[in-house]
Specification:
Elements lengths: L4 H6 L5 H44 L26 E16 L4 E13 L5 H4 E3 L2 E14 L2 E13 L11 E10 L7 E5 L5 E2 L8 E14 L16 E13 L3 H18 L9 H23 L10 H29 L3 H31 L2
Parallel strand pairs: 1-7, 1-8
Antiparallel strand pairs: 1-2, 2-5, 3-6, 4-5, 6-10, 9-10
Helix pairs in contact: 2-6, 2-7, 4-5, 4-6, 5-6, 6-7
Length: about 375
């Protein structure tokens, strides 16, 4: 129906070809939006996963220096005496892991550690420390000599600091490490030799939400950025200690946590798509569904955010929640267009129905593909 004055020009109805172009353009915009968002966010998560795997492999590679660590000191110098050069065979048996809390950036562990060596008594059991944590309790279980062989066995409870990488939470994986160093003897006097054969993790060790999928025991020299004022060492030398690294790789055991976290926001998106089953003639119920879904998604985001530590990096959780909220907003915008077509175009009912049917398919396939692709690229 034509209207008077300037409004008549503003509301002038396009031709059928123009109508088709408008609908195709809008649907193409939705499709391109989903494609570009899926590729961009999936690429970020894939890079984060590869970076995490690389860091974990470096942690358990005795021949590689990890990122952020000081380069190993290889300078030879006159110590004024013969180095002790004692090899201490050392192993670890993890008996219990508990209090693994991502928000508290720490975990606790009970483990046995043993030392076997020949030669002078360098007291490795008295002098070892945990570099990335604190020993809460230490108990000598066994101390014995068999000929020239010395043996000590300790039970240790420790709290270990761990800055958990949550960029792929809740499809994350982590390398939890116990780093052992001697407090008195540098690497030229004492070197740990990993007892990898006897080192293990108890079958009783359970970490809620995770499964243990990798372990390793290696020795890596660790250089500091200072000689610590030791007058025996030349200027510019970096104190270097033998470091025993026991790594425990953990990953998500199932998809349970992922579904529990996002079930609310997934339901909100599905609810918003139901609006396309309501005729544009019924404006109030159609928009009520979308608006209700929008506020339900915002409430879900607050619940999800309370479960993880704050992070400045873009995470899987950010991508899922952002794409969900934007999807709901776009369904509302599409409904607005559909209602406008219904009331302003000739045969508006038919054109609005075409838009609704096409939008249903695009939103369903686009959002599902996006969500599955993000989860897949974040998982091991």
């Amino acid at each position: 129906m034509q209207r008077a004055g300037g409004e008549n020009q503003l509301m002038r109805e396009p031709s059928d070809k123009g109508k088709i172009r408008l609908l195709v353009s809008w649907c193409a915009l939705l499709v391109l939006g989903y494609i570009s968002a899926t590729i961009t966010m999936a690429d970020v998560l894939h890079d984060q996963k590869v970076s995490a795997i690389t860091r974990h492999l470096l942690r358990l590679d005795p021949h590689k220096v990890e990122a952020g660590r000081t380069a190993l000191e290889t300078q030879k110098f006159d110590l004024g005496r013969e180095p002790l050069n004692i090899k201490v065979k050392t192993g670890i048996y993890v008996d219990r892991i508990f209090d693994v809390v991502l928000r508290h950036i720490h975990w606790k562990v009970d483990f046995y550690i043993w030392f076997t060596w020949t030669g002078p008594n360098v007291h490795p059991g008295d002098n070892f420390q945990i570099i990335n944590g604190e020993i809460i309790a230490k108990e000598l279980k066994t101390k014995t000599d068999v000929g020239d062989i010395h043996y000590e066995l300790y039970r240790v409870t420790a709290e270990i600091t761990k800055l958990f990488n949550i960029t792929r939470y809740p499809r994350d994986n982590h390398m939890m490490t116990i780093l052992i160093e001697d407090t008195r003897h540098q690497s030229f006097d004492l070197t740990y030799v990993p007892d990898a054969e006897d080192s293990a993790i108890s079958s009783r060790v359970k970490i809620p939400g995770y499964e243990i999928w990798r372990k390793g025991l290696v020795e890596k020299d660790h250089s500091y950025k200072t000689r610590r004022g030791d007058p025996r060492l030349p200027e510019g030398y970096k104190s270097t200690y033998s470091q025993l690294v026991f790594g425990i790789g953990i990953k998500r055991a199932s998809w349970g946590l992922y579904l529990k976290m996002f079930v609310g926001i997934f339901a909100a998106v599905c609810l918003s798509m139901l609006a396309f089953f309501i005729s544009p003639a019924h404006t109030s119920p159609r928009f009520a569904i979308g608006i209700g879904a929008f506020f339900a998604s915002i409430a879900s985001i607050y619940v999800i955010s309370s479960q993880i530590p704050l992070s400045s990096a873009y995470t899987l959780t950010d991508f899922v929640t952002a794409s969900s909220v934007i999807t709901i907003f776009m369904t509302l915008l599409t409904s607005t267009i559909s209602v406008g077509i219904y009331h302003r175009w000739q045969a508006g009912k038919a054109w609005a129905s075409r838009l609704d049917r096409t939008a249903q398919i695009i939103f369903l396939i686009g959002y599902t593909t996006l969500s599955v692709t993000l989860a897949w690229n974040a998982s091991l």
